[in-house]
Write a structure and sequence with these properties.
Radius of gyration: 24 Å
Number of helices: 5
Order of helices and strands: EEHEEEEEEEEEHHEEEEEEEEEEHH
Structural class: mainly beta
Helix content: under 10%
Length: 340
């Protein structure tokens, strides 16, 4: 069906089923591809083992969110919702797949004008519905000299489809009041906060090694330098940031311990069931003048009861062979050895 409008002798045809500015549920995935107002992430949103497409408005471009499900190679829009951007508040950061957890993905928003004010909205798929299960708020009071950073998990249980309705969106529970945060939230070490924002400048952590070498940690980057500052090796696939998996509050990087020709990265990760203390040890090879992977240790504790030791896994060069410091990838080790 079409409508004809005559303007100054010229005929303009308006297709009633889609005018300029029609909403996203009237557009296919092609509209959003190569569109600078949106970004797309490939995530299996319906748990069928096939990658689907998650579409979100870009920063400062709106509050739109769409799930396009892969139907035999074509994509059908199955959800229209919000990306939790706020006018004058937090804006969209990214949408990430959540590994090894009940949730499918998390939507990250942050306040762009300084301080720490972030939110992670966790979404799962239950009974053919996408549900906002919880929100993790990360916040501190920048006005204080010794600011505490609070990590607050707030249960939601809301249907994502309903959040298009402004009244339903008002049901989203916000971060607890300041007077309640000490009781119901976790307090994050201010020194560790430097490791929670990759790409943001912060002070480096420097550790003395043997042979007048130093290990320098900055965000997820671990560099080995000599006494002149010359770079000898670099790796950004070792250091964990706080709550890297998104499964629970884990400390991430803790410290580097050096003894003789060895140094060990000590840090914490988290899986669906366990808190995992990780120990990654490298040994200096005087012949090649390289640090080589020497040993891996993983200590598992019950997530519900962290004081309960469940199991340990130890791997040596007999298992993984010769791996140079700069070539080591911790997540690949989990896939190859730890999770088997």
């Amino acid at each position: 069906m079409k409508r004809t409008v005559k303007i100054t002798g010229k005929i303009i045809f308006f297709l009633i089923f889609c005018v300029a500015g029609c909403r996203g549920n009237q557009k296919g995935i092609e509209y959003f591809e190569d569109n600078s107002d949106y970004f797309i992430r490939e995530i299996d949103v319906d748990k069928n083992g096939t990658l689907d497409k998650v579409v979100s408005s870009e920063k400062y471009k709106g509050n739109e969110l769409y799930f396009f499900v892969n139907k035999g190679g074509g994509y059908q829009m199955m959800l229209e919702s919000i990306n939790f951007s706020e006018d004058g508040g937090r804006i969209i950061g990214d949408i990430e797949k959540v590994e090894d957890n009940e949730e499918l993905l998390r939507i990250h928003t942050f306040f762009p004008d300084g301080g720490t004010d972030e939110a992670y909205y966790y979404v799962t798929y239950i009974n053919s519905k996408w549900i906002l299960t919880k929100t993790r708020y990360i916040n501190n009071y920048w006005q204080e000299d010794d600011a505490k950073t609070y990590v607050c998990d707030v249960i939601q249980g809301l249907n994502m489809k309903d959040l298009l309705n402004p009244e339903a969106a008002k049901m989203i529970k916000q971060i607890p009041d300041r007077s309640e945060r000490e009781r119901v939230c976790k307090v994050q070490d201010a020194a560790k906060e430097k490791l929670t924002k990759p790409g943001v400048e912060s002070d480096s952590l420097v550790y003395e090694l043997n042979n007048e070498l130093k290990a320098v940690v900055k965000q997820k980057d671990l560099r080995l330098v000599d006494k002149t500052g010359k770079l000898l090796g670099e790796n950004n696939s070792i250091i964990r940031i706080t709550d890297e998996s998104g499964n629970c509050f884990s400390e991430g990087f803790r410290t580097i311990v050096s003894k003789g020709d060895y140094f060990t990265v000590e840090q914490q990760n988290c899986s669906n069931k366990y808190i995992i203390d990780e120990y990654i040890t490298f040994k200096y090879d005087s012949v090649t003048k390289n640090y080589m992977l020497h040993k891996l240790g993983f200590v598992y504790s019950d997530k519900a009861n962290p004081d309960t030791l469940e199991k340990e896994k130890i791997f040596s060069a007999k298992d993984f062979g010769k791996i140079k410091f700069s070539e080591f990838n911790l997540d690949s080790v989990y896939t190859e050895y730890v999770n088997k």
